[in-house]
């Protein structure tokens, strides 16, 4: 099963290798403004799912929020340690 760390490694590799058709690369190239909107959108969907939807739907929305947060981290050049040291 994928973890936060293994997804971050995968996305780091995608951004470095820039494979054809990668949604991550396309989103990365759009920049911080686009990524910020995705983070906000997914955060809102997490809230709505927590209020009104199933555990499974909530878990899926949380996974998407984690994904977009990671793409933002990569765009700003942050690594896992930069974040973990604040936990
Ligand atoms: N985990 C994710 C992931 N989570 C969310 N998303 C993106 O976030 C969007 C969220 O879906 P929504 O339903 O909220 O939005 P949507 O309306 O369908 O999509 P938009 O029109 O808003 O882009 C998805 O459509 C994906 O574009 C993800 N995109 C990729 N991954 C993983 O990232 C890795 C690299 O993916 P690629 O770069 O696409 O190869 C792979 O392991 C993927 O599984």
UniProtKB/TrEMBL annotation:
GO terms for cellular component: cytoplasm. Pathway: Amino-acid biosynthesis; L-histidine biosynthesis; L-histidine from 5-phospho-alpha-D-ribose 1-diphosphate: step 2/9. Signal peptide: none annotated. One of its GO terms (biological process) is L-histidine biosynthetic process. Keywords: Amino-acid biosynthesis, ATP-binding, Cytoplasm, Histidine biosynthesis, Hydrolase, Nucleotide-binding. InterPro entries: HisE (IPR008179), PRib-ATP_PPHydrolase-like (IPR021130). Gene3D superfamilies: MazG-like. It is found in: Cytoplasm. Transmembrane segments: none annotated. Belongs to the PRA-PH family. This is Phosphoribosyl-ATP pyrophosphatase. It comes from Dietzia psychralcaliphila.
